[in-house]
From TrEMBL:
Coiled coil: 86-120
Name of the protein: MerR family transcriptional regulator
A UniProt-annotated Pfam family: MerR_1
Keyword Hydrolase: no
Key words of the record: Coiled coil, DNA-binding
SMART domains recorded: HTH_MERR (SM00422)
Annotated SUPFAM superfamilies: Putative DNA-binding domain
Record domain HTH merR-type: where: 4-74
Signal peptide range: none
PROSITE patterns on file: HTH_MERR_1, HTH_MERR_2
Length: 125
């Protein structure tokens, strides 16, 4: 079985390193371990890369690895976990929104300081 993508191809496609992909596998974040080719190397499917893309977004949006692992566990269990998965994502969404609001407040302070320095440089009051 040598179909599918190599770890290098998936790394290039997802922007992750091969090390991170191996870590995601060891951490239990993948839906299933990627099958191995005749040469023993991992061979990733399109489904794997789609899942990895989702993991990348979840991580980039601040989801902790433990929550990502829980989400993967639920996904492996199938349709009976839709409610639990939705609730997990809704909780994460609330966290993301709170962080966005905090960033907006932080940006206001930065903008205020920039405006203050602009006025002082140009001699405005």
């Amino acid at each position: 079985m040598d179909e599918g993508m190599t770890i290098a191809q998936v790394a290039q496609r997802t922007g992750l390193t091969a090390h991170t992909l191996r870590y995601y596998e060891r951490a239990g974040l993948l839906l299933e371990p990627p099958p191995r080719g005749d040469n023993g190397h991992r061979r990733y499917t399109e489904r794997d890369t789609d899942w990895i893309a989702l993991l990348t977004r979840l991580r980039a949006s601040g989801m902790p690895i433990a929550a990502m692992r829980r989400y993967a566990e639920l996904a492996r269990r199938g349709q009976d976990t839709y409610v639990a998965r939705k609730e997990l994502l809704e909780a994460h969404r609330a966290d993301v929104i709170a962080r966005i609001e905090q960033l907006r407040r932080d940006l206001e302070v930065v903008d205020h300081k920039i405006d203050l320095y602009r006025r002082r440089i140009t001699g405005e009051q």
